[in-house]
Specification:
By secondary structure, the chain is mainly α. Helices cover about 25% and strands about 5% of the residues. It contains 4 helices and 2 strands. A two-stranded parallel sheet has the order 1-2. The radius of gyration is 17 Å and the shape is globular.
């Protein structure tokens, strides 16, 4: 289901507020230009520290793109054909997880699909970060269903 969204650009909202209805909740919070620019250097399935120059700042052509040693653990491009990392409440920031194909974070809808919410599930909030937090704090619905089935078998 996530492939359905990969070539569609999500709607960006500045200031973390949804100001108009968006079909399918394919929404991201507007990112800082420098984060988007940094993300283009990271290959799929790798952290920024895994790039050819390692922790050295010479991986960036311009000094303004340099990052601190603390930030190198953040920028990670999710691989498309392997298991995804655990969905956390802070997936709204490109510094945490980068889309495997685009230089942007995953949209609300993409993160919900990864977490096993149905394609028709809607989250109600005007705050983008609050929606990512709801998804990240939730038990994946398919996991909850399997646990409930097993409990039902035993009792």
């Amino acid at each position: 289901a996530i492939k359905k969204y990969e070539d569609i650009n999500p709607v960006e909202f500045p200031n973390n507020k949804i100001t108009e209805p968006v079909k399918d909740m394919h929404i991201i919070k507007k990112q800082k230009d420098i984060y988007v620019e940094r993300s283009q250097y990271i290959p799929e399935g790798r952290f920024i520290r895994d790039t050819a120059s390692g922790l050295k700042n010479d991986i960036f052509p311009e000094k303004r793109l340099h990052i601190s040693n603390i930030q190198v653990a953040r920028f990670y491009r999710i691989p498309r054909n392997s298991a995804c990392h655990t969905i956390m409440p802070n997936w709204n920031n490109i510094r945490n997880k980068i889309h495997y194909k685009k230089n942007r974070p995953f949209s609300i809808k993409e993160v919900a699909i990864i977490q096993s919410f149905g394609d028709d599930f809607d989250f109600v909030s005007k705050n983008i970060t609050a929606i990512y937090t709801m998804i990240g704090n939730a038990v994946p619905p398919l996991l909850a269903n399997r646990i409930a089935e097993k409990i039902n078998e035993v009792y």
